[in-house]
Design brief:
143 residues, alpha/beta
């Protein structure tokens, strides 16, 4: 399955990988200005934005590798946030030949044990979300 992807600009390649609560549109503020200096790739991971989640096993990292190769990018700096950071890290481990640099913002790590305090915060956020109390977390982001 091919991911939805966009490419713009000229110069060193940069692949932008969205977080797990967004899709590739989260990069809109950076898209035009950065494309003046870099060849940008942004994708919608499976189940996000314009890429459907189809039945069957898959791996986001393999999907991103395929998108990089299909676009003929070669080596790229991978910029990933949260889920996107984890995907970028997995690509770097699986295919270091495709990665010129990593920028990881709050990446998840497979097998990492999160603290009880953080799990409690997540539970509070989930409760507030389900109650429609968007001001309780994220404030203006959700309003």
């Amino acid at each position: 399955m091919a991911l939805y992807s966009e490419v713009a600009g000229e110069g060193p390649a940069v692949a932008l990988v969205h977080e797990g609560i967004c899709d590739s549109r989260m990069w809109e503020p950076q898209w035009e200005p950065w494309s003046r200096s870099y060849r940008l790739l942004r994708v919608d991971l499976r189940g996000f934005g314009r890429t459907p989640l189809e039945p069957g096993p898959f791996a986001h990292a393999r999907d991103l590798i395929e998108a990089i190769e299909q676009q003929g990018i070669g080596r790229a700096a991978l910029v990933g946030v949260s889920l996107g950071g984890r995907v970028a890290l997995e690509v770097a481990v699986e295919r270091p030949d495709l990665v010129s640099a990593l920028v990881l913002v709050a990446p998840g790590f497979p097998g990492h044990e999160w603290s009880d305090e953080l799990r409690a915060e997540w539970a509070e956020e989930e409760t507030a979300f389900e109650a429609g109390d968007f001001a309780a977390f994220g404030g203006a982001f959700w309003a």
